[in-house]
């Protein structure tokens, strides 16, 4: 039997649990179920994972609206676990001309060969499936562009499309993605007359862009890569990292591998948090709440 504590104290205790732990804890007893089955605990955790009230279909008959986020969390993860166990999947079929895709729930971003379709398709997870919500035009091809572009979405309300020498940024404004800024990069190599530079965005927030820059002289003679942190509101680059490989990012941190395969963890702003280990070639993480 659980201690007879005030509800406010139970909520404080349960606030330290993540989604999976909440689902297990509410099965302990009726009292815990009643406390955990509230939107105060579930809403911020689901939104952090990109799960919204319309992500899946919910039956509302006879249910309390005050606990709709709790029911969403339960339905979402129970449906996911059941489908995974039973092998029930409905694949999302990309258009044949799709070049690249980026997923950051609830959104899916698709890019195409710009010589045939110079636009970005934005999908949103609604009722358990991705639905096309908008088609965003891209700038005309320039002489130093490539017809292939790469999407990057690592934040809830902004994504970028990289086109070798520039990145076009779109932001979510009043429920719609709109063009925000086009960031163009100059060659970082002193022999830029001979070196062909290429830039691609790998982490993007409202203010900060992380991008990898590579150049080669052609013919496979040599290749160099750098990682830049760029504040695209002030047009300043506070950090440049040579011989680093981008491994991934979370909401708060960026994960890199050094030339000696050490793991380097930095804040989104570029501040060094930790480094160490050896033989690191990939990293996997999950939200803490």
Layout of helices and strands, plus pairs?
Blueprint lengths: L6 H8 L4 H7 L4 H7 L2 H10 L19 H19 L11 E7 L2 E6 L6 E8 L2 E9 L12 E3 L5 E5 L3 E8 L2 E9 L11 E9 L3 E9 L6 E9 L4 E7 L2 E5 L3 E5 L5 E5 L4 E5 L13
Antiparallel strand pairs: 1-2, 2-3, 3-4, 5-6, 6-7, 7-8, 9-10, 10-11, 11-12, 13-14, 14-15, 15-16
Helix pairs in contact: 4-5
Could you please describe the fold and organization of this structure?
This protein has 289 residues and is an alpha+beta fold. The chain has 2 domains: 7-86, Monooxygenase (Up-down Bundle); 98-276, Methylamine Dehydrogenase, Chain H. The protein is 18% helix and 38% strand. It has 5 helices and 16 strands. The protein has helices at residues 7-14, 19-25, 30-36, 39-48, 68-86; strands at 98-104, 107-112, 119-126, 129-137, 150-152, 158-162, 166-173, 176-184, 196-204, 208-216, 223-231, 236-242, 245-249, 253-257, 263-267, 272-276. The strands form 4 sheets. Strands 1-2-3-4 form a 4-stranded antiparallel sheet, with no helix packed on it. A hairpin with a 3-residue loop joins strand 9 (196-204) and strand 10 (208-216). Helix 4 (39-48) crosses helix 5. The protein starts with 6 loop residues before the first helix and ends in a 13-residue tail after the last strand.
Short characterization:
InterPro entries: F-box-like_dom_sf, F-box_dom. This protein has helices spanning 7-14, 19-25, 30-36, 39-48, 68-86, and strands at residues 98-104, 107-112, 119-126, 129-137, 150-152, 158-162, 166-173, 176-184, 196-204, 208-216, 223-231, 236-242, 245-249, 253-257, 263-267, 272-276.
């Amino acid at each position: 039997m659980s201690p007879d504590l005030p509800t406010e104290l139970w909520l404080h205790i349960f606030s330290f649990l993540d989604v999976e732990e909440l689902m297990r804890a509410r099965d302990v007893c009726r009292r815990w179920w009643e406390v955990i089955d509230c939107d105060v605990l579930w809403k911020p955790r689901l939104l952090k994972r990109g799960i919204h009230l319309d992500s899946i279909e919910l039956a509302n008959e006879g249910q309390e609206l005050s606990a709709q986020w709790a029911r969403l969390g339960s339905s979402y993860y129970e449906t996911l676990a059941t489908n995974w166990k039973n092998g029930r999947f409905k694949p999302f079929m990309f258009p044949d001309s799709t070049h690249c895709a980026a997923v950051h729930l609830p959104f899916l971003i698709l890019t195409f060969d710009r010589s045939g379709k110079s636009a970005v398709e934005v999908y949103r997870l609604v009722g358990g499936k991705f639905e096309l919500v908008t088609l965003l035009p891209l700038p005309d091809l320039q002489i130093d562009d490539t017809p292939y572009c790469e999407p990057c979405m690592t934040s809830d309300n902004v994504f970028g499309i990289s086109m070798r020498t520039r990145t076009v940024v779109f932001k979510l404004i009043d429920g719609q993605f709109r063009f925000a800024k086009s960031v163009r990069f100059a060659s970082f190599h002193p022999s830029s007359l001979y070196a062909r530079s290429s830039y691609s965005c790998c982490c993007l927030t409202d203010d900060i862009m992380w991008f990898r820059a590579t150049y080669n002289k052609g013919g496979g003679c040599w290749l160099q890569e750098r990682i830049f942190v760029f504040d695209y509101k002030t047009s300043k680059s506070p950090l440049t990292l040579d011989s680093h490989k981008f491994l991934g990012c979370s909401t708060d941190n960026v994960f890199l591998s050094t030339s000696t395969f050490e793991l380097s963890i930095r804040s989104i702003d570029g501040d060094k948090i930790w480094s160490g280990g050896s033989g690191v070639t990939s990293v996997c993480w999950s939200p803490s709440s």
